[in-house]
Each structure stands twice: as structure tokens, then as C-alpha cells.
Specification:
By secondary structure, this protein is mainly α. The protein contains 18 helices and 6 strands. The protein has helices at residues 36-40, 76-82, 85-94, 100-112, 119-125, 133-147, 157-182, 196-205, 216-228, 236-246, 251-262, 270-281, 287-295, 316-331, 337-351, 353-357, 364-374, 382-402; strands at 5-10, 15-22, 30-31, 60-63, 68-71, 74-75. Bound molecules: s-citryldethia Coenzyme A.
């Protein structure tokens, strides 16, 4: 019976080193290299962690080759088509889908906790008009630590449940407030007669003492977008959240750090960049020019909404969003240049050797931006929408690490290329 190990041979001196293989429940096994430096005197090197597992996790599984995504073992298409975002949040946070009674109680919790302390308004008042809502939201989440400081130290499952429900429930209110403040508009408080996702659209669109009706097709489209964004294994922002969890930082600091990481154009900021790019291209007869630029190694221009570190096949979330986009455009009777430009880019990229050979398929951000535009969500709010969806995933990942027996602080090493010791002149 062969040993479940790998052997590394240093060809410079013939020394060989053996490392254990750890098997996954599904997906790739890992080589445990935690003793690599102690045994070999060398570090391993993997910029961007393309082949590195940073942790063990039970939460989300992705297979980039087959375009598979599961939350706690449930396929993303089941969650998007048969369940709601609150089902998904409960599943990620608690490990199982809620019973009807659990869902009713969770929904009530979300309503009760949806209001934010009035002190947050004083903080938001200090920001100038036109401040980006992601900057306001990140500050708002950090500010929760000044208001709910008993959650700076989570020890029991009850304290975790209360903290996680508090953050998941307050993020949409903070997000809507961030938008209203960025536009100098009066803020709209949550309406406890409305559901979680409907309430967010209400707080974004309503005016004081004005009753508004929201269409089910819009609410369902946004709820599905939240579900599709809820977690995604060890992506860059989740890695940021886990890094803070490894230092025993409190959840508000970790979620605020996740918001900062997600805002990057290469990550959750991509959906806003997709729309800005489509507007910049402007018409179908300019698409070829920009495709050529995206392929030109000497041109930093990249096609926003294309490519993914893990999916070298279609992003399963993009497949679901593509159908929602097409249905919504029909329902809301939306057409126009942006769709034509997007469709031409998509058609070329799906057939062009440069993109196909690199596995550069449309990702979640290529379709979410067009849907959010159809829902009359402003571009600067697209990454905020991503935050609302991703928050339960971040908290579940933060908690999974915090529950570990021996938490190892995230502290990678480096390949030093700097100057050797210099004698001061
Ligand atoms: C999200 O990780 C996650 O799970 C993230 C996410 C989540 O749910 O959390 O899925 C959400 O962030 C989706 C990705 C959104 N970002 C974008 O749409 C921005 C555009 N995409 C690229 O920046 C890029 O594709 C990344 C950042 C997404 C992935 O980059 P990688 O894996 O580091 O790939 P790479 O930079 O090594 O590129 C491989 C090759 C290179 O060419 P060669 O050197 O092999 O010749 O593909 C090329 C790149 O130049 N390439 C692109 C491209 N993306 C990669 N060329 C043109 N346009 C692009 N968009």
C-alpha cells in the first residue's frame, strides 16, 4: 500500500524530504508543507496563492474545471432557483438549511435588528456629498464596534449568533444610508412590513411619507444576486477577513477589511468597472479596438468581467445571471447600446482563441452590472450590493477560523530580493 505522502528531492545535494498528503471530502488533496522550512531550510513560493490552500473549510466548494459551486453541499443552482437569500445566509452561518420555524425566527431577527444606532447618522453627516458609498459603508461597519463593543470578544455560540444576525441585518440599512448620504438625500428607515431584500430596494428608492410598490420580478432578481454572491471559498476579500480572524480581531474590523479588499477593480469592484467600460466603448463598432487592446501584452487594458482565478470554465453564477438578465430586460423592456456592446464583446470573447485558450469566460460581474442597472441601482452602489450578499459568507468564514482549537496567526514569509547588509558610509 503506497504511503499517502510526496517526496521532494533537492537535486543540488540529493537530500529528500517527505510530506503528508491530506485528502479532501471532494476536490483536490493537499500536501501539508507546514514543516517544509523546518526540514529543508527553504520557503515555498506561490505569488497570489494559485496553488496554495490557506485553511481547511466546510463552507463552500468550487470546482473551477467543471464550473461547480456548492454552499454547505447544496448546488448554487438549487439555492438560486429554489431558496431565498435568507435561507442562504442561515445555511452559511449555521451549517444547515432552516426549518420553516427557524426561517420565520431568522426573518423576524433580521427585521428587529435592521435599525442602526442614531449615532451612525452623526458619523455619516460628516462625509461630503459624492463620497463613494463603499467608503461610507466601510466606515459605518467599523463604527459598529464603537456601539456594540460587547461583541469585541465573542466566546459563546449565543454571542456569535447575536453578532452575526446583527451585522447581516444592519448591512443593508448601512448600505442604503451610504447611498442616500452620498447623494444628499433624506434617509429612509427600514419598513418592518417588508421582506429583507424588498426593504433594501425600498430604502434606496422611497421618499419620506411616500408609499412605493416594488415589482416582484425586481425583488427576486436582487435576492438571487445576493444569494449568488453569498460566499466563494477563499477569494481575496475572504482571505482578508480570515487574516483578521487569525489575529483575534473582532468581526466589525474583519468585515470592514473585507469591504476594503472587495472594492478593488480586480475583485468586487469589477461590476462597476464593467458598466463604465461598456459606456466607454460606447458602440459595437468600437468593440474590436478594445478586444485588441485587451489582448495586447503591452496594453494594461483588461476586459472587466472576464476571467477568474478559479473558473477556467463558465462561472456557474454567470450562467444563472445571464438568464436573469435576459428575462429582466424583457420584463422591464430594456434594450439599448450597452446590451448590444455587451453581447458583441461576449460573442467575440467566447470564440476568440486568446480568451478561450486562457479560460477567460464572462464572470459573475459581467452580468450582475447590467442587471443592477436594470434595477436602477447606481453604478457606485454595485460593489455595495456585493457586500450585502457576501457578508454572511465572510462572517461564517470568520467564525469557522475562530472556532479552531489552535488558531495560527496568518504570517507568510517572503523571497527576499533586497540589498545584502551594507556598511554605513
Ligand atoms: C470576482 O476569487 C473569487 O472568487 C472572486 C469572485 C468572488 O465571488 O469572490 O469570483 C469575484 O472578483 C470575479 C473577478 C472579477 N474581476 C474582473 O472581472 C477583472 C478582470 N479580470 C482579471 O483582472 C483577471 O481575470 C482576474 C483578476 C479575475 C484573475 O486573474 P488571475 O487568475 O491572476 O489571472 P492572470 O492575471 O494570471 O491572467 C492569466 C492570463 C494572462 O495572460 P498571459 O500572461 O497568460 O498571456 O489571462 C490574461 C492575463 O493577461 N487575462 C486577461 C484578463 N484576465 C486575465 N486578459 C484580458 N482581459 C482580462 N480580463
Amino acid at each position: 500500500m503506497s504511503k499517502n505522502t510526496v517526496t521532494v528531492i533537492d537535486n543540488r545535494n540529493g537530500n529528500s524530504y517527505e510530506f503528508n498528503i491530506l485528502d479532501a471530502s471532494i476536490g483536490p488533496s493537499v500536501v501539508d508543507i507546514s514543516t517544509f522550512y523546518k526540514n529543508t531550510g527553504m520557503f515555498t513560493y506561490d505569488e497570489g496563492y494559485t496553488s496554495t490552500a490557506s485553511c481547511k473549510s466546510d463552507i463552500t466548494y468550487i470546482d473551477g474545471e467543471t464550473g461547480k459551486l456548492m454552499y454547505r453541499g447544496y448546488d448554487i443552482s438549487y439555492m438560486a432557483n429554489k431558496k431565498t437569500f435568507l435561507d442562504t445566509a442561515f445555511l452559511l452561518l449555521n451549517g444547515d438549511l432552516p426549518t420553516q420555524e427557524e426561517l420565520d425566527n431568522f426573518t423576524l431577527e433580521m427585521k428587529k435588528r435592521s435599525f442602526v444606532h442614531e449615532a451612525v447618522k452623526k458619523l455619516f453627516d460628516a462625509f461630503p456629498d459624492r463620497a463613494h458609498p463603499m467608503a461610507i459603508l466601510s466606515a459605518g461597519v467599523s463604527a459598529l464596534a464603537t456601539l456594540y463593543f460587547k461583541h469585541l470578544d465573542i466566546n459563546t455560540s449565543e454571542e456569535f449568533r447575536e453578532m452575526s444576525n446583527r451585522i447581516v441585518a444592519k448591512i443593508p440599512t448601512l448600505a442604503a444610508f451610504s447611498y442616500r448620504y452620498s447623494k444628499g438625500l433624506p434617509i429612509i428607515y427600514p419598513d418592518l412590513n417588508r421582506g429583507f431584500t424588498e426593504n433594501f430596494l425600498y430604502m434606496m428608492r422611497a421618499y419620506p411619507h411616500q408609499h412605493i410598490e416594488l415589482r416582484d420580478v425586481e425583488i427576486k432578481a436582487l435576492d438571487t444576486i445576493f444569494t449568488l454572491h453569498a460566499d466563494h471559498e477563499q477569494n481575496a476579500s475572504t482571505t482578508a477577513v480570515r487574516n483578521l480572524a487569525s489575529t483575534m480581531a473582532h468581526p466589525y474590523a474583519a468585515i470592514s477589511a473585507g469591504i476594503g479588499a472587495l472594492w478593488g477593480k480586480s475583485h468586487g469592484g469589477a461590476n462597476e468597472s464593467v458598466i463604465r467600460q461598456l459606456e466607454m466603448i460606447g458602440s459595437v463598432d468600437k468593440v474590436d479596438e478594445y478586444i485588441a487592446r485587451a489582448k495586447d501584452k503591452n496594453d494594461p487594458f483588461r476586459l472587466m468581467g472576464f476571467g477568474h482565478r478559479v473558473y477556467k470554465n463558465f462561472d456557474p453564477r454567470a450562467t444563472i445571471l445571464k438568464d436573469i438578465r435576459d428575462d429582466l430586460m424583457g420584463e422591464l423592456n430594456i434594450s439599448g447600446k450597452l446590451i448590444e456592446v455587451a453581447n458583441k464583446i461576449e460573442h467575440i470573447a467566447l470564440n476568440d482563441e486568446y480568451f478561450v485558450s486562457r479560460g477567460l469566460y464572462p464572470n459573475i460581474d459581467f452580468y450582475s452590472g447590467l442587471i443592477l442597472q436594470a434595477l436602477k441601482i447606481p453604478k457606485e452602489m454595485f460593489a455595495v450590493i456585493f457586500v450585502i450578499g457576501r457578508t454572511p459568507g465572510w462572517i461564517a468564514q470568520w467564525n469557522e477560523l475562530q472556532q479552531q482549537k489552535n488558531i495560527k496567526i496568518a504570517r507568510p514569509r517572503q523571497l527576499y530580493n533586497g540589498p545584502t547588509e551594507r556598511t554605513p558610509k
